[in-house]
Amino acid sequence: MTEYSGVVEVRLDINNEIKKTEIRPSETLLYVLRNRLGLTGAKPGCENGDCGACTVLIDNMPIKSCLMLAVEAVGRKILTVEGLKDAPAQKAFVEKNAFQCGYCTSGFLMVCHSLSINHPKADDKRISEWLQSNICRCTCYEEITAAAKSILSR
Amino acid sequence: MINIDISRKEAWDKVSGKAKYAGDYVFPGMLFAALYLSKYPHALIKSINLDKAYAVEGVISIVTGDKFNALCGSVLKDRPPLAIDRARYYGEPVAIVIADNEMAANAAAALIEAEYEELPIVESPTAAIMPDAFLLHKVEDYEKAVDDVHPQKGANISTKIKIRKGDINKGFKEAAYIEEATFCLPQSDHIAMETRCAVCEIMADGSVNIMTSSQSPFSVRQQLSKIFKIEEGKIRVHVPLVGGGFGGKSAVFQEILAYIASYSVNGRAVKLALMREQDIICAPCRMGLDAKIKFGMDKEGYFKAAEMVYLVDSGAYCDISPKIAQAIAVDGTGPYNIENVYCDSMSVYTNHPYVTAYRGFGHESYTFCIERVVDKLAKKAAMDPFELRLKNCIRYENFTPTQVKLNESNMGNLEACLNMLKSIVDWREDNRVISRNDKIIAKGISAFWKTTNTPSDAVSGAVLTFNSDGGANLTVGVVEYGQASKTHLAQILAEKLSMNPGRINVNIDVRTENAPEHWKTVASLTNYLAGRAVLNAAEDALRQLKALASVALRCPVEDLDIENERVFIKHNPEYFIGFQDLVHGLKYADGNNYGGQIIGRGGFGMSHLTKLAEDSGKGKPGHEWTTGAQEVEIEYDKNNHKYKILKAVTVLDIGKSLNPGIDKGIVKGGMSMALGIGSREKFVYRDCRTENTSLRTYKVYHKEYDAPAFIVEFVETPNKESPYGSRAFSEHGIIGIHAALANALSAAAGCEIDTLPLDGEAIWQLMEADK
Hints:
Chain A is α+β, with helices and mostly antiparallel strands. Chain A has helices at 29-36, 88-95, 105-118, 124-131, 142-150, and strands at residues 8-14, 17-23, 55-58, 61-64, 77-79. In chain A, helix 2 (88-95) crosses helix 3 (105-118). Chain A is elongated. By secondary structure, chain B is α+β, with helices and mostly antiparallel strands. Chain B has 3 domains: 30-119 and 201-273, Aldehyde oxidase/xanthine dehydrogenase, a/b hammerhead (Aldehyde Oxidoreductase, domain 3, Alpha-Beta Complex); 288-454 and 611-770, 2-Layer Sandwich (Aldehyde Oxidoreductase, domain 4), CATH 3.30.365; 459-605, 2-Layer Sandwich (Aldehyde Oxidoreductase, domain 4). An 8-stranded mixed β-sheet of chain B has the order 3-5-1-12-9-10-11-21. In chain B, strands 7-15-14-13-8 form a 5-stranded mixed β-sheet. In chain B, strands 16-17-28-29-32 form a 5-stranded mixed β-sheet, sandwiched between helices. In chain B, strand 28 (625-637) and strand 29 form a beta hairpin. In chain B, helix 10 (363-380) packs parallel to helix 16 and helix 13 packs parallel to helix 14. The longest helix of chain B has 28 residues, at 526-553. The interface between A and B is large, with 52 and 55 residues.
């Protein structure tokens, strides 16, 4: 286990780029993404792991970046919403009107993107289980569910 | 361009992380503010010790209430931005720490020490109006910000609205059935996903730059101007995309604190971003309601009299609550034709967090009470709840409680909504409640109406410019928080100009120094208020385009028409000139230019609205009433009282849907919030201290395993004064769903369920109490 103290320089693999930045070891991944690296797509909604607006992928699995220290992400592959380019989930969210205010959207997109990678044939129960990790206050989740289903090969 | 499905203007920004909200911006040299909040719901603040807080490295300044001795409020000026000597709710801001980093600011705020002397607490609006209740305020000393607010001297009442229509005694004499019920509905919270945030910088000349997550940038400007005596034009408010509002961001709150913070550090840019816990307990929340309802019905089933007392739990300060009490009063019978009405509606102080507007503006609260009473009357008289509603529903030529005559333009067709609902849900006597072993499948319905309750002088405006390629730019003061107003307005403009909505750019961010004033982005009013301004701007531009084209095409103006960015001669369409050759002036081969730049301008304001008469409530509070009918179908388990929601349905008279896919989604969102209110959302207090202060303990509606089917259908009866007939609809999905839920559960459980929220335990408790 690596020990950190004071201000340290870390190398983070984000969206297939290596980012070098100075951080304090107590900083969450969310804080570092937003305040050190300018990647503001991940949003603070609760900073308590309850809402999922800050979800990013770590080695293709969704992680609430407010609950992970940035130093824990060293050596792993981080994908944020800014790293998506023409991903099926993005198109599906637009086509299905799967957002209104858009604040939770980055998080839900990353969940759906990961679901399509890890469980391309997910059934309704698994889709619900994955979508329950996040909160959307504007929609009734129907459109988000429809978007998720549309990118799975069921 | 109307009634078509197109994506939101900002759709791709929102799926790429490029959409920016107030908290995403960084300003050079920006400092950070953190709040210290009252630890008591009601206490004198005897002393505040800042020594330990100042000792934290990075702390630059700490401000307490005594430094800014001003009261604020958009209706009644009763609230100090920071508590002065006395705190009236748990979580009230007492001090602000400004530091050069967030960690230091938060650490220092936690080290502030204050000595309090506790005062008696007022725990409900019913208790607050008792003669011996402890007074939170001396309301008679407060300055009114509007003249139609009626604070009651020597009482915890910030306004009292009286509705007197017909003869209530005569009405009850004609009644064969009388139903009385009392309700006590809890406060809850907006929980917009983006917590409130503002960044303020004061320039060397005293002018102010504020970026904020607000639904009301022009109110921010006006309020700051009044509180801090700054010329309005010197305050520049910038609102980028907002991450959900639901009314909660219509109150001016964090901006005042951010200004105070910046002022204390010589105007440096300071960011105040509320943490979720603070956004829940400190920032304004949703009202609670205590209500007493008495309905009289004759033996044929017609409502003859309605008597209501509504007490809005405004919490510690009134903010917009007097206007919510008024909004409840003007529609407080529910959407029924009742000739004899007696209603007292008050906003009442308690030691709860203070409240502001919330989706439904009180209608989501009182409708629950009325719709429960209607179901009880149906049961008492052994009538079908649907038929009873259909019999009494408000119709054209009827009068509202404030005596506005209704017609097919100023009100939706409720009868049509009810009938459509009946056929969608297959409402029949023999299938309303079906028992299957231990499970009961039951249906419940509700009806609602709502007028807009705008100030009689609310205004909007639009400015239309063109690019050298002929494309158009529309600037409005409307904030985008998910309601798709920018898209709707582009469609309205596109229809008027007969051009592709994709060629119309609408400003997403609002900057008060550039955009024409738009009252507030609230009340589901944008398509009307801003929409009419957009139409006026379009008319203005069309007139100029045609005038200039008539020179170019050498023909009378009346021979010209416009389509697809071309002005053409009607009887000879091959003679035309494109917008690109007109909008920046006519260009001649020799270099001459004629006509300058075409700019369309449109202003619009509410008309014919009046203030309400103080003795009777008579007056016109809104330009239209939206109507709708809703149903919820549940599966109830007799053994543990738990239930599953199978279906939720809304039929709403939208006048004209501009963008059906988006519009239905917005209504469904309201229904989803209502299911939250119905099933889980409320503030839990212990001695007025909010206990569920995080999203782990304050639960909102999540994606369910067995998600209900959400069904939305529209009736379309055009409002003749609104663009393309559209009616207000965005907030209305919320209004009657929890009432329909309680009606279904009451039918299933065989018990009168008059409380919220409803889980298995709540129902069990009601059944135990019933025994």
